[in-house]
Design goal:
Blueprint (H helix, E strand, L loop, with lengths): L6 H10 L15 E6 L5 H23 L3 E7 L10 H12 L4 E4 L2 H4 L3 H12 L5 E4 L8 H12 L8 H14 L11 E3 L5 E3 L4 H12 L4 H9 L4 E3 L6 E3 L4 H9 L6 E4 L2 E4 H4 L8 H7 L30 E3 L7 E8 L6 E9 L11 E3 H14 E2 L3 H49 L9 H24 L7 H8 L2 H7 L3 H11 E7 L10 E6 L3 H6 L4 E2 L8 H4 L6
Parallel strand pairs: 1-2, 1-3, 3-4, 11-16
Antiparallel strand pairs: 5-6, 7-8, 9-10, 12-13, 13-14, 15-18, 16-17
Helix pairs in contact: 5-6, 8-9, 13-17, 14-15
Length: 564
């Protein structure tokens, strides 16, 4: 199959079609500061971390939105204890003076890991002094629900690895850039020891024939019927066994639209040219790929549709992959169905559904309202509040483990700073003595610079000692823990942002199952769930306050004897 149009052209057009998040503010009128921080004072480990944070903020936030960054703050101190970070305090003063109006950081936990400074950030947003707050790995919206979620993220930063998915995504992005397999198999290919895609000797010709059938005008139904008669098997994992695979119409449609088969590998918004990366063998040429997808030219606007899910439901991410059909035990497809004005076509509102698309399941093509899952989650929160002393002890155990680690880290830093400071002072004294003996040597040494370095080292040494002494004081009190957990039962009912709701539910729940009481309809279905740890263990041990999750719950009630 000849390739007259280049794979690189296809790659560039797909990249040009990436959606950008809309911003309501005018970036030309906002003066931004970028803040980057790591908890250690170790210079060897600090530089790359700070550099990576700044780089990712610039690539993901600043450059795509043409933001005006007037200053970058960099700091290498823990944010667990308030009022100890010079650069952070300087940033707050600049915001309060009006010289800085927007803040950019890699993640909320870079700004704060304590309630005092977290509250200061949220207060500045409330007062309008921070007009725009953006993160490279976290989405914040200036709404009551958004601020509640931000507050939870600040306080729970030590307990949960909330940016695990972002870290994984960074690894996936690098793998895609290196043209490597990252866990999603492709029909017609196997993965070699370098994690490169190579033609599957059993299936490559079959997949190629499916594309030829599409080029010849055969319908996707005809293609699906043909391939399902071939006793098709697939190797889903490198080196794994071949297993039987039954194609459905969505399988065929997705494959025909996948630019991987023309030489451009796509993972989310990450794209790479496989043909240039190594001797990758495409199934079809770019010309043929465009013909199958009824695209006349690479400049055709229809090429951009390849970047978007069918139907444009890019917002349908609520509990994606976490909701299962009780009949076939397969995950349900998430979908957002808009209700439009008949005359203007304007979207009035949208309803969220979960749909079973498993072939031969009695619930195939049947949909269930997302409200069934949300109602069950709300019921759970109304019945369970994790505010007992043993709940706190579990949390405290984790906090103490972190404190022990931090103590060892500070001890190491203090010892290092002490050595460096002693060496620097000795060197300074020797240079000073040398200049006194030979004044002509003065031009060869910068005593002022050496003195400044000693002053900075003394400051760092003093701060490290202060932080070391306050590690235990930084462990959250029972009251701080309660202030967070008492909000959880009512947050869900207040959240209107789908991403915020998704992030909150994923903290507590591992999955949901919708089991119909009658075949062919999800109406009246029973919803069950599996909890994440430690919540699952708490429930199994009856270690929670029953029925306390109402909006009228007060801290006085929580601190009462019944709660303990």
């Amino acid at each position: 199959m000849a390739d007259s149009k280049s794979t690189q052209q296809l790659l560039e057009m797909l990249q040009a079609g990436q959606d950008k998040d809309p911003r309501e503010i005018n970036p030309e009128l906002i003066r931004y500061a970028l803040y980057a921080r790591k908890s250690t004072t170790s210079e060897d480990r600090q530089a790359s971390s700070i550099e990576d944070q700044v780089k990712e903020c610039m690539e993901k936030v600043v450059t795509p939105n043409s933001l005006n960054v007037v200053k970058i703050y960099q700091e290498s101190y823990s944010a667990k204890v308030a009022d100890l970070r010079d650069e952070f305090n300087a940033l707050i003063k600049e915001i309060e003076s009006g010289r800085i109006e927007g803040v950019i950081a890699w993640h909320p936990d870079r700004l704060s890991r304590n309630m005092k400074e977290a509250g200061a950030i949220i207060d500045l947003v409330d007062r309008g002094l921070i007009k725009d707050l953006r993160f490279a790995t976290f989405t914040f919206e200036n709404t009551p629900a958004g601020k509640m979620l931000l507050g939870i993220t600040f306080v729970m930063a030590k307990q949960y690895s909330e940016h695990l998915s972002e870290s994984v995504d960074r690894g996936n992005r690098r793998a895609v850039e290196d043209a490597e397999f990252i866990g999603k198999f492709k029909h017609g290919y196997v993965v070699d020891e370098k994690r490169y895609f190579r033609p599957d000797p059993l299936n490559f010709a079959k997949i190629q024939h499916m594309f030829e059938m599409a080029l010849g005008g055969k319908s996707q139904k005809d293609i699906r019927i043909w391939i399902n008669k071939q006793e098709y098997t697939v190797q889903k994992l490198p080196g794994g066994k071949y297993v039987s695979h039954v194609w459905d119409k969505d399988d065929v449609s997705k494959m025909l639209r996948d630019p991987h088969y023309a030489g451009v590998h796509k993972w989310g918004k990450n794209l790479t040219n496989l043909v240039d990366a190594y001797n990758f063998e495409p199934v079809v040429s770019v010309d043929e790929f465009l013909q199958i997808n009824k695209i006349d030219d690479l400049r055709d606007a229809k090429i951009l549709a390849i970047n978007r899910p069918k139907g444009g439901n890019i917002q349908a991410d609520l509990l994606r992959g976490m909701v299962y059909c009780g009949k076939c035990k397969k995950s349900l497809t998430s979908m957002l169905v808009p209700k439009r004005d008949k005359e203007t076509g304007e979207v009035l509102h949208a309803r969220y559904y979960y749909k079973c698309e498993t072939e031969n399941c009695v619930m195939r093509n049947k949909s269930a309202r997302a409200g069934l899952v949300i109602d069950e989650a709300q019921h759970f929160f109304r019945q369970h509040l994790f505010i007992t002393k043993s709940n706190y002890q579990y949390y405290l155990k984790s906090a103490k483990k972190e404190a022990k680690r931090k103590t060892a880290e500070f001890d190491s830093d203090i010892a290092r700073l002490k050595r460096v400071l002693a060496n620097k002072e000795t060197s300074y004294q020797k240079i000073k003595d040398l200049i006194l003996e030979s004044p002509e040597m003065k031009d060869h040494y910068d005593l002022g610079k050496n003195k400044k370095e000693i002053t900075n080292l003394k400051r760092d040494y003093k701060k490290a000692q202060l932080l070391r002494k306050q590690v235990d004081d930084a462990i959250p009190t029972f009251e701080d823990y309660l202030k967070l957990l008492k909000l959880t039962p009512v947050i869900l009912s207040k959240i209107r942002d789908m991403k915020a709701m998704d992030e909150l539910l994923r903290i507590f729940f591992s999955n949901f199952t919708i089991t119909p009481v009658q075949d062919g309809t999800y109406k009246g279905s029973k919803v069950t769930y599996k909890l994440n740890e430690p919540w699952d263990g708490f429930v199994n041990d009856d270690d929670f306050v029953d029925g306390a999750g109402e909006e009228t719950l007060t801290l006085d009630l929580i601190l009462g004897k019944d709660a303990l």
